[in-house]
Amino acid sequence: MVFVHGWGQSASIWFEQRQQFADAIFANLPGHGGAADAPPGTWRDALAGQMPASPCILIGWSLGGMLALDIALQSPERIAGLVLVSSTPCFRQRPGWPHGCDSETFTAFEQGIHAPDTERNRVLSRFFSLMLHGDELPRSTFNQLARQAVDRQHPASLSGLEQGLELLNSMDFRGQLDGIIMPTLILYGEQDAVVPAAAGRELAGNIPHAVSHILPGCGHAPFLTKAKVFNDKLEAWCRTL
């Protein structure tokens, strides 16, 4: 199993999965979690380079799920099973695609990461809050999750944040989903404020061998806020492969 995090985060975000899936690989994207920066066109290969030689179960969350989709389309022989968590075939709103991020919100993130360090940290903190929006967590639980999930020793680099946004802006797999040939599990939160649940339904309806679960009362990071439910569904699905 290979777990891949999303924009602005790191492999630390999977702390609730490390014990149950102790033999898994927890990858860091370029410019995240202490990994070296790299041009956006090389991120797919950088991720593939962290995967084992034999076919694996590739688990991608958000931006990590989009990169996992890219690998599944380009190198299907590398993947025995694909798991897409709170992910989307297209992150930005486009003609005929209302399920993406609007220009105003996206521009605010672009501008925010170029602000001084203290303001950039506030932007990333706001994004973390947005990820958990919809879970209605007590403040103490939110703070505990933030302490455990965020790698404060290795914050995402400015280049990593820039290149990640460039990928979120440009990647669009809507017309290629029928080319996903491996078994696929799709997990997403009903109250996701980052990637609308409609995007998850689009994935589920257009990937040929997909099984999907909507997690009620849950936002963008179900593996954090509903860890036991998430882990049990993932483990049960893996047994079917």
At a glance:
With 241 residues, the chain is α/β, with parallel strands linked by helices. It is built from 9 helices and 6 strands; from the N terminus they run ββαβαβααααβαβαα.
For the record, the count of structural domains works out to: 1
The CATH class is: Alpha Beta
Radius of gyration: 16 Å
Proportion of residues in helical segments: 25-40%
The whole-number mean of residue pLDDT values reads: 95
CATH H-tier superfamily: Alpha/Beta hydrolase fold, catalytic domain
Q: Per the principal axes of the C-alpha atoms, what is the gross shape?
A: globular
Give the distance, in angstroms, between the N- and C-terminal Cα atoms. 13 Å
| Annotation field: number of helices | 9
Backbone structural class: alpha/beta
Largest sheet features: 6 strands, parallel
Identify low-pLDDT runs: none
Strand content: 5-15%
E-strand count? 6
CATH topology heading: Rossmann fold
In CATH, the architecture is: 3-Layer(aba) Sandwich
* Major sheet: arrangement of strands: 2-1-3-4-5-6
Subunit arrangement of the protein: single chain
